[in-house]
Amino acid sequence: MVQPPAPRTVKPRAKSTEPLEKQILAAVMKALRLHPKVGWIGRYNSGAMEADGRYVTFNTICGQSDLMGQMKDGRMLAIEVKRPGKAATPSQGEFLAMVTKYNGVAGVVHSVDEAINLANQIGVK
Fold this sequence. Notes:
Distance between the termini: 47 Å
Number of domains: 1
CATH class: Alpha Beta
CATH architecture: 3-Layer(aba) Sandwich
Radius of gyration: 16 Å
């Protein structure tokens, strides 16, 4: 039987004027939905929960990106969103490398501008 992970302790956050990751993520998704080279984009959560007395996990791909979609030319799109100054975890980096290896579009972004630049640098085939 799979056991749930131990509860995480939450450290108090210092007050910051920087936007939260969830705010950046929402803005990036909104911008990319309007981008002329992006076919579709969505947020696919990962995690686990208890249901009907059993522990259920969802999204079994380790390091899967925050935003997943498809370019209009058919290629997969994977974007990891981070706060300024933060980097992808090793598993997130491995996932992005796998997407790129198989001709997808992938990257880490910290702002709407970076996300738009990523999509603009990718030529439509």
